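Tutorial handout. Part one gives the primary structure; part two gives the three-dimensional structure as tokens.
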Amino acid sequence: MATDIEKLFAEITNGLDLLKPQQVEIVAAHVYKRQITALTKEALEEFKDRTESQQEWEGFHARTFRQEVKANLKNSRYESVEPDADRLIEINGLVIDKHSALYNQFCRAILIGLDQVYEDAQKIVNGNFEDPVFNFESADSPGVQSENQAVTLQVAAAKYLTDYQNGWSVKHYRSQKAKLDHFIAFMGDGDLAKGGRRGLDQAATSDVRDYKELLQSTPSNAQKKYPDLSVIEVAEAARRAGDPLLGTTSINNYIQCVSTLYSWAATELDYQGKNHFKGRTKRVSGKSKSDERHPFSRVQLGKFFTSPLYTGCQSLSSSYQKGENVYIDSSKYWVPLIGFYTGMRLQEIFQLYVEDVYQANGVWVLDLNTNHDDKKLKTDQSKRVIPIHDDLVTAGLIEFRNRREGNESQRLFPDALLSGDGTYSSTFSKWFGRYLKNIDIKTDKTSFHSFRHNTKDFFRAAEISDELSEHYLGRLTGKTGEAYGSGHAVESFAKAVAKIKFNDYLDVNVLKGLNR
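Part two.
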């Protein structure tokens, strides 16, 4: 027997172009049930030994989000839920003009559903999972589920990649697509087309084990070295040739990519099967993630910031050789300093514009946003505003910013050009690796990303909470309460950063550039 939501979708298919109030409520209830079910399940899995302050923090943000939803409803602002409306329409095979009244009604229905979600989220925050308000039938529509059980790996992967393409860099998109193609080909016994025809629900626990074994036998740069071989044949060829194999981090990235596809399908395609890849990336070769990459040591940091780049070099192209020049208007000079004091990702630094460096309530900040077409952030959590440490101000970052103001290019580092992979960071990353090698501090475990690991260690040594430090770095801790908030304020970050003893590693006053 068809559900109310199925009947409504059928009417729309047959030409219905305006919803009655009760039909708007049907869509809103559909949204509410799915969202609240997911939130309840997550909370039941994650809530343990919670404090009153945690409950108050999560409750506050639930109320804040509800106020935003109500304001959007009142002022007919639909941008925040248009992606949800598009997915709901696409998944159910509907054709609705985005400029129509019906489309706007879908957006309003989603907002109404979210309003109810954030109202009842307070009960979940307080641990009242047995409240009668949650006594509704399964949020899954039988007709929708039966349709999506037949979704193939090829279709799911294509929709997933399309969904995220605009938010990813070209490099990241290609990387994710290659990983998914590799898995799909594995599911087809080496045949990508055959694997693509298999259903999402056909991957079993045994497939996860077999796939991990294949990855452990797969060489680095397999596509370049063996372009004509299948993923199965590549492993055998690598064994015979004695090729270096994928490391732990790379294997984890493949597994996580597939797991993310399944998690996305559960939310966006109503996939009801199990995600057998979830939680399978913690240990692959017996090493923990903390063993895989290293922060710079105190000795390495000392040697780097007293190297010719900062004390005097021959030229930018020979910046590792001693000389008389300090290039204080070069990205090579500033980017490592910013990385050291902020832990920002390399691409995040290069995407900065002059307008992103400003004062807020007396504090100089760096604003990480996507306000320009060439900006892509790794995740939604990467969008943040962080304080500039006083040492960076002392070093002359604000003066550098002011010198850039009014120039033709408004990027903070226009000397870094866009690479073929769609990033500003690729060329610099290679130069940085060579520079570390030339000043004799390069190891297999260190790279520019090591500054990010240093920052995490600095926060830990200063006894700053994991939650705040993760938010500062543009990441989530995975706690349910984070879904209700928009992150920490700049003031909180500034107080935390002030506790870090950067001068134990770098005396900024000795930088020769200060005297130029």
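Part three, for discussion. Residues 21-46 form the longest helix (26 residues). Confidence is low (pLDDT under 50) at residues 138-149, 284-291, 479-486.
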